[in-house]
Write a structure and sequence with these properties.
Number of domains: 4
CATH architecture of the largest domain: 2-Layer Sandwich
Strand content: 15-25%
Radius of gyration: 23 Å
Number of strands: 19
Largest sheet: 8 strands, antiparallel
Bound molecules: flavin-adenine dinucleotide
Shape: globular
CATH class of the largest domain: Alpha Beta
Length: about 475
């Protein structure tokens, strides 16, 4: 790739006021949400339209300038920020915010990639529909970023991840052409599924500029509860019972360990719930009933009574109001912030077969505690999807550089255990720049070879988000 500095004047003229080069203006685009990676860039381009995106990418291809697509910059793995060479151009989709169409009969919504997730949810609600993708960053992350990372979140158990909620995409390819694949079709078997290649590709194959998304009916009522359990094994028994009793109305099943509740109480007291800090584990359950509030309440309370009588749960609190339900969710959503405020931490966004989670947590906890005395496990996540944020914090009062120096050894213990259980080292956050090397270690040679060939086909110049997902060759 060229190291000379191409002249930005043609881009500057085309992007009057929307091509940022002043360090004070570009700084927010160069550091990720975790503040773990800070890069440098020639400029930040802020397109308004798909044709703007295409013209930027064509310019980058012509001058061999790396393109780093960016949405809300809430990613967890450093995918949305450039490296420190200063050669890349950050392409921020944040100004592309049009809801292009809502079709309540086809149950679809088409939106520009820069729409914030909550804006998409609200547009669906205005049409009396539900767009069920939901995650704690939903007030800042964009639909383009959600698709580029194949985001998961708290509704996957019932509605699937971002991929399952997307029927079509519009993409600017690495040579600056526009592919309009905005099809609102549930059935379309016309060859290789290009949409599914761009989804989850983290900006390394092309730029998603718009998407056609699936909508669902709004539920008539929601019920939320926190239930205390003794262990992840007990949480799995509760999951099995809840799936039997609530079937498709079970829409949320999140587990958290005691330290999660304690850290929220310490650092975000407004979101604390005593039950979560007083029990080894607790589960946040949600049901969404299509019929009525009375029906929802009756089924939900029966389930909890049965779980209590069977000795699966030891305590429970059912939200009596929407405010209380929000309070339970606020507890869950504030864990990442509380963990970050507590200090140095190492995150593992892993998945294993649901049935293997209990043994995985017990064994891996024991191995880490033995090897790193005092290490603190902050375990939470989407148990119903087999996906845990199996995070660790430094021992109380310790931390800093010494703890972070152990990161490779800690990761090896966790990821070896994940591999042994037949799991994935990245369930929903992607690989970004954080897990490129580990992916090369744990994936099979044939998978890596096919991925490398796809990358070379879609991006022969290697300008699309280099160093993310795949190593630079
Ligand atoms: C508090 C918190 C909670 C979170 N909870 C969850 C969770 O429950 N589940 C989950 O999956 N994630 C979660 N995340 C991670 C993050 O929010 C998601 O990965 C989200 O989908 C990223 O969207 P974004 O718009 O911020 O993308 P960015 O961070 O800007 O980018 C992420 C990646 O996508 C690429 N990209 C962005 N936009 C485009 C585009 N239009 N075309 C092509 N490539 C693009 C970037 O290059 C980068 O590789 C959480 C993050 C935070 C801060």
């Amino acid at each position: 790739m060229s190291t000379s500095s191409p002249d930005l004047s043609s881009l500057r003229a085309a992007f009057a006021g929307r091509l940022l080069t002043d360090p004070a203006d570009t700084a927010p685009f160069l550091t990720d949400w975790r503040k773990r990676w800070t890069g440098r860039a020639r400029a930040v381009a802020q397109p308004d339209t798909t044709e703007d995106v295409a013209s930027v990418v064509r310019w980058c291809a012509q001058h061999r300038v790396p393109v780093v697509p960016q949405g809300g910059n809430t990613g967890m793995v450093g995918g949305s920020v450039p490296d420190d060479s200063g050669r890349a151009l950050v392409l921020s989709l944040a100004r592309m915010k049009r809801i292009r169409a809502v079709d309540p009969i086809n149950n679809t919504l088409t939106a520009d990639a820069g729409c914030i997730l909550t804006e998409v949810q609200q547009a669906a609600q205005q049409a009396d529909r539900l767009f069920p993708l939901s995650l704690a960053a939903e007030g800042s992350c964009t639909i383009g970023g959600n698709l580029a990372t194949n985001a998961g979140g708290v509704g996957v158990l019932r509605f699937g991840n971002a991929r399952d909620l997307c029927l079509g995409v519009e993409v600017v390819t690495a040579d600056g052409q526009v592919w309009n694949g905005l099809r609102g079709l549930r059935k379309d078997n016309t060859g290789y599924d290009l949409r599914d290649l761009f989804i989850g590709s983290e900006g390394t194959l092309g730029v998603i500029t718009a998407a056609t998304l699936k909508l669902y009916p709004q539920p008539a009522a929601r019920m939320t509860a926190l239930a205390a359990v003794a262990s992840p094994h007990a949480a799995l028994r509760l999951l099995e019972l809840a799936q039997r009793r609530l079937a498709a109305t079970l829409t949320g099943f999140e587990m958290m360990s005691r330290l999660c509740g304690e850290l929220v109480a310490r650092h975000v007291p407004s979101a604390a719930v005593p039950l979560a800090a007083a029990n080894p584990y607790c589960v946040l359950l949600e049901s969404s009933d299509p019929h009525s509030e009375a029906n929802a309440a009756q089924t939900f309370e029966r389930l909890l009574e049965e779980a209590f009588e069977a000795g699966i749960i030891t305590d429970a609190a059912v939200a009596a109001s929407i405010a209380q339900s929000r309070a339970f969710w606020a507890l869950r959503e504030n864990i990442p912030l509380a963990q970050a405020t507590e200090g140095d931490n190492i995150k593992h966004d892993i998945s294993v077969p649901i049935s293997a989670i209990g043994d995985f947590v017990e064994r891996t906890n024991a191995m880490l505690e033995q090897t790193f005395p005092g290490i603190r496990m902050v375990v939470f996540g989407h148990l119903g999807d087999g996906n845990l944020h199996y995070n660790v914090n430094a021992p109380e009062g310790a931390g800093g550089a010494r703890f972070m120096a152990d990161e490779p050894a800690i990761n090896a213990i966790v990821y070896d255990a994940v591999a042994q259980a037949g799991g994935s080292i990245s369930a929903e956050h992607g690989l970004g720049q954080l897990k490129v090397a580990e992916n090369q270690h744990y994936k099979s040679a044939i998978e890596l070879s096919l991925m490398a060939r796809l990358k070379a086909t879609f991006d022969p110049l290697g300008i699309m988000n280099p160093g993310k997902v795949m190593p630079v060759t």
